[in-house]
């Protein structure tokens, strides 16, 4: 036998028994996005490598070590998108969607990062993302957070997620804080983990993210970002908190929340759960007022988030919040060879009579007992047996119901649709 070929590590198939959960989740995401009047945008999965270098930042984990980058046949450097924000801004600039106007956009699709795979962390994963452009007030930060909060509510997992908030303030304020933090950490360099030592020069804010207990210990006495907030950023943050309070959204201030992508300023937030082990961030985002201009557009404020759909599906499954689905309504069986010839046409007529009715036609010529066993296994509500001149309708889920006969397809529909015969 030929050697079988396996999927690439960290890239998952979503199998037929999992896809109903995905469809359920995607349906809710679409519906909630629409209820806030966000419109879908679909971007390509491949972009020029420069796009991500210029937006996410050269000295970030994503750009330094996680991108799937290759030269195409023309010698151009391309990258499989590691996230959607950069592509969304690129598309907005390219098609004039952002110039002097507001946009509320959402997207959903695969992203690619060469990370070490584990539960909740994959190399191909899926994000649902929201991006709002052209609005600078804290009301729109509140809107995107409320949208995410509505999702948890709709899914019934509000108690399983916690909102963490911070402000990265203005670029100038952050630069001053960076200097102060670097100076402080230099004085304790020998107590820092290797990664953090390296980040002192390259991306000192990420030291705040360090998982090392020793580094975290040092950080206890480090200067705080909020001590460096500029007045406008503080007012913006207060404005956001007031709106969240008024809407009854709970949050905690996490001064060490800095995010792993360089484009953020002011508001940053993450929704975190303790139910998924190490990969507990289900949704993350913030404001990125400089990115549109940085990528060649006119200066345009923006805010958004992305959630990991795999993590959301895992969280929902852990809380038993994925509704059971049925894929077959009616299972069609032929009683004999003559009926077998009519069976495909009968199944078609059933689908014609009632739009959306899910009809599975039995294939193969086993005996009736086996056919009925298959009908039962399909999960169908009814088996329709085609006899010589009429049909027999069997209730597969409710054995107390008596089997009925029907003379025509219309009668069959009346019975399976539970209407009065
Ligand atoms: P991010 O924090 O890099 O932000 O990713 C957002 C979410 O995507 C994470 O919180 C997580 O749920 C999911 N995620 C990230 N990497 C993986 C992975 N390897 N496997 C599974 N899930 C993963 C962004 O991507 C920003 N573009 C978010 C944003 C939009 N900010 C503003 N607008």
UniProtKB/TrEMBL annotation:
Superkingdom as given in the UniProt entry: Bacteria
Reaction equations catalysed: tRNA(His) + L-histidine + ATP = L-histidyl-tRNA(His) + AMP + diphosphate + H(+)
EC number: 6.1.1.21
Subcellular localization, as worded in the UniProt entry: Cytoplasm
Keyword list, A-Z: Aminoacyl-tRNA synthetase, ATP-binding, Cytoplasm, Ligase, Nucleotide-binding, Protein biosynthesis
Record-linked SUPFAM superfamilies: Class II aaRS ABD-related (SSF52954), Class II aaRS and biotin synthetases (SSF55681)
Residues annotated for L-histidine binding in this entry: 83-85, 113, 127, 131, 259, 263-264
A biological process from GO: histidyl-tRNA aminoacylation
Annotated CDD domains: HisRS-like_core (cd00773)
GO cellular component: cytoplasm
Pfam families: HGTP_anticodon, tRNA-synt_His
Span of domain Aminoacyl-transfer RNA synthetases class-II family profile: 1-344
GO molecular function: ATP binding; histidine-tRNA ligase activity
Enzyme class: ligase
InterPro entries in the cross-refs: aa-tRNA-synth_II (IPR006195), aa-tRNA-synth_II/BPL/LPL (IPR045864), Anticodon-bd (IPR004154), Anticodon-bd_dom_sf (IPR036621), His-tRNA-ligase (IPR015807), HisRS-like_core (IPR041715), HisRS/HisZ (IPR004516)
Similarity comment: family membership: Belongs to the class-II aminoacyl-tRNA synthetase family.
HAMAP family referenced in this protein's UniProt entry, alphabetically: His_tRNA_synth
PANTHER family named in the record: HISTIDINE--TRNA LIGASE, MITOCHONDRIAL-RELATED, HISTIDYL-TRNA SYNTHETASE
Quaternary structure (record): Homodimer.
Name of this protein: Histidine--tRNA ligase
